[in-house]
Amino acid sequence: MRNCLILLLFTLSGFCYANKNIGPIISFQELIPNKAQYSESTVTIYGVVLAAELHIGASELQRKIYLFPNTESARYFLNHESIELNIKFDSIEQFQKFRSDNNLKMFKVTGNFIVSNEFNGQPVGVIDKITNFREITKNRFVVNWNITS
Q: Domains of the chain (ranges plus CATH)?
């Protein structure tokens, strides 16, 4: 009886997880030319995170998180290839800790994509209502080799 109950719980938890809305998994190469198609919808995308402090015009210093298609785009801050992530921090220290821990690392992000206004050099859009923000580590796939000679 106990084993049946455990099996039922695992089945139900798997069912609930499978029905979670992660939206389509898309690439930057698919998103950028078709951004209007994905506007106001949930998407999942992989990219490189960059936390930046910058002045926009004459405004005060702003702290923003961006997702880039690759490390080179992030290093050269090719903003027109990026997506801004709507992540808020309670303090400067939290932002700085996030930056030191996560800059130039690969993440999987799921959230609501909103197309940004068409300004030169601005991000493609914003992802808000983020439901998944997970680092993708190197060698995430483990291969066990059984070699016999």
A: 21-135 (2.40.50)
Residue type, 102: N
Q: Mean pLDDT across the stretch 62-66?
A: 94
**Host H or E run for residue 4:** helix 2-18
Produce one character per residue of 69-89: b if its CB has 16 or more CB atoms within 10 Å, e if not: beeebbeeeebebbbbbebee
Task: Decide if pLDDT at 145 tops 70.
Answer: no
Question: Under a CB-based contact definition with an 8 Å cutoff, are residues 142 and 98 in contact?
Answer: no
- Tell me the three-class secondary structure of 52-106, residue by residue: EEECCCCCCCEEEEEEECCHHHHHCCCHHHCEEECCCCCCHHHHHHHHHHHCCCE
22: number of CA atoms within 13 Å, CB side? 15
pLDDT tens digits, 79-129 = 999 999 999 999 999 999 999 999 999 999 999 999 987 666 789 999 999
